[in-house]
Amino acid sequence: xxxxxxxxLLGLTLTACSTNFAPMKYSMVLNVAGVSTATVIVTDTTxxxxxxxxxxxxxxxxxxxxxxxxxxxxxxxxxxxxxxxxQTVTLKKNEAVSLIYTAR
Length: 104
Fold this sequence. Notes:
Strand content: over 45%
Number of domains: 1
Signal peptide: 1-22
Shape: elongated
Strand order of the largest sheet: 3-2-5-7
Order of helices and strands: HEEEEEEEEE
Helix content: 10-25%
CATH superfamily: Immunoglobulins
Largest sheet: 4 strands, antiparallel
Keywords: Signal
Radius of gyration: 23 Å
């Protein structure tokens, strides 16, 4: 009876362990150049939720972003300037995105 009980307990212990870890959280630094202030929108395309929609003067940090999610970063149009292209980032670490406006 002891020979059967020991393997059964060992199996129970091993199956109780989980390898399902929560994803890491990272930050994204937004750098805006060429204008004094621009509204920047960050969207989590994995969840289809807007996680940031604010004016940025110089730099801003978007905290608590989920690892392996795909984010789009877009800048609002400003008269007299060429709008930077929308950027797509798959978050694997802390990231920095630069949005550079140029005068027309």
